Amino acid sequence: MPNDQFGPGPSSQAPQSTDLLALAWRGRWLILLGVLIGGTASWVYLQRVTPLFLSQSRIYVERSLPNLLGAEYQVGRSNSYLFTQAELIRSTGVLAAVAESPEAASMETFRGVENRVAMLYEALSVGVGQDDEIINVGLELPNRFEAAQLVNAIVDAYITQYAEKRRNDTVEVLKILRSEQERRDAALAEARQDLTAFREANPELSVQVDNQDVASDRFSRLMNELNQTELEQLTAKAEYERVKQMAASPSLRPMLLDTALDAFGSKSDLDRDLERLRNQAQDLELALMTEQSKWGDEYPTVKSIQRSLDQAEQRIVQKEADIAKSKEMALKAYAFDIKERYEFQTNKLNELRSRYQEQFEEAKESSANSLKLMSLQEAYERAVSQADVVEQRIKELDLTTQAPVNVSIIETASVAPDPSYPSRPKFLGAGVMLGALCGFGIAWLRDMLDHRLKSVDEIQEVLQLQVFGAMKRQMGRLGREELGKLVHLQPRSTSAEAFRTLRTAVHFGLAGDDCKVLVVTSPSPGDGKSVIASNLAIATDQADRRVLLIDADMRKPTQHSIFGVDSKQGLSTMLRERRPVEDFIIPNALGSLDFLPAGPSPSNPLELLNNDYLIEVLERLKARYDRIIIDSPPVMPVADSRVIAAMSDAVLLVLRAEKSTRSLSLAARNELWRVRTQRLGVVVNAVPQSRGSSYGYGYAYGGYGAYGEIAYGHEEDATLSSRKKRLIKSRPAPAESATVVEQT
Fold first, then answer.
1. Quick check: bond before 422 cis, omega within 30?
2. How many Cα atoms are found within 13 Å in the side-chain-facing hemisphere of 410?
3. What's the pLDDT tens digit per position in 45-94?
4. Where are the alpha helices (DSSP H) in 403-493?
5. pLDDT in tens, 204-238
6. List of residues 6+ apart from 613 with CB closer than 8 A
7. Is 245 exposed, middle or buried (0-12, 13-18, 19+ CB in 10 A)?
8. What angle (nearest 5°) sits at the alpha carbon of residue 535, between those of residues 529 and 537?
9. 3-class SS of residue 126
């Protein structure tokens, strides 16, 4: 199972979090483009839209009511009344009076408009103030002069039709309501008479006990007593049957006798008397035995004790007979008591059942009368409510007819100096904001659809593994052989120092002295695992350690071309022919580094790896070398790396920046965990040479000042002039080149 230091297990996967600031920075050009498009579109719209001018009039509507109605009827000052007046201003009658006036016929606003009332209704705004009782009437039109003229005309039409004109149909409505009131009053009187007559005919319904009439309450109590008596009768019957069975059973009869004595409270006294007699007899027996041993049977004292002992035994026999007689008498009394109790409960139950049937008939009749009384009560209350509604409506109509309405024009509509629509600052700001949001949304969608791992923090969070290095992409053009030996060819470069830092981080954070076999692999081909393996082996060898580099990628070997050796024989030959490994190791392939090439590509590399001979070879090599670094095939395409990882002490998983995806990396990690990889770490390869790169600060054990900057993510400006690029290329071996590892 994987060590807790390097991951919780194959099934764990931490949720991915999105840094909005980092996301906005990565999509800054999309956001900027959205801002430009949104601002331009807003500006174009402002140039083409027709401006509108708002004219407003403010009026105050007051209604005085008779004082005798009370404060609750002062609807003239209520919000509901004001909102009603606002709707009246927008009514068809008011707008039609304005639209059909002679002045409106010559207005430019209505030119070519078929439905003038609908046009006014759409453009008119009427609102009641939140902090006051002022009604605001406004109209927004392209012609500022006609807007003010139409608003004033609408206010005048409202005052003419609804504030000064009495509605003639109110009297007819009052006549209808008064006729309905007479009919409701007659129905109410009839319902009251029926209710009173029924109550007089059934006076017992007026007496209530716990919200019930007397008959129902008596029946309820009798039913509860009957249920309780049935339970007690069943209990007494069961007790009686049990006593009869125990009395008939020889084995249970003694227990019944004891129970009877306990019931009458005499058992303990009899037992104490019998026990006292037995103790006396036992004392006499001990005294007799003592005297007989001293004086013999004919001694007077012995004879006296013998007579006392005989008398004590007779008393014991008599006491036992008395106890047996007492038990029989107690049993008879106990059985008689149980039988009497059973018969009493039976007689009581029969009597209650008889009374229950009689009381049931009385309760049924009382319940029917109660339902009828309830129905009459509901009919009476309904008649009262209907009569009250009609009376209230008559009062309201009288109030509406008699109450005067006073309308005060606080502010007449005037010509607006500036357009109210559109507002240039608001439109431009909204366009810019909407464009920025659209750009950010596109950037977010692009980021969601992009499943690549974009930062060291994301790698550690998703994979739950420690990242031991983040290697920069090489800016110059170097071949695979040069990339694989960067530590040897450019020992003073920042790339070489980065690999030495990786060596230290891997040693202290992943491998350690007890780790002999280190496997370097990757999820897929092209991630740069071979170059990482060769440079890490060279850096480890430079630390005065005995190192062996094994190229176990027998499907597509690379290390022999990096070190420039022949690969006609190697690991595949050794495994196939089971020959000693010493015959194929190339000593001092580079410095003191030993190298075992992959050999010719076999047809069955997995079968060659999956045998005990490779394990035996690795065990022998552990005794000779301080560190064995194995260049393994990728994890996902073939199963070779999983077999090799199962034989190793630690695995270094190489991920390629801006290429390795979350799903593929998780699948590779889980496959390595399934073969019980003990230690697992990550190296990020080919980090982009950009200032905005998020792969910086990837080492687990820090850097070395200026040497660490190139490994952590700082770089030169990638937009160098052509002259500077030619100068850089002309240098034979740059000491401070911005190196890292290209793909294998």
1. yes
2. 12
3. 888 888 888 889 999 887 654 443 444 444 444 567 788 888 888 888 88
4. 424-449, 456-463, 480-484, 486-489
5. 655 554 455 666 667 777 788 878 888 888 887 88
6. 575, 578
7. exposed
8. 100
9. strand
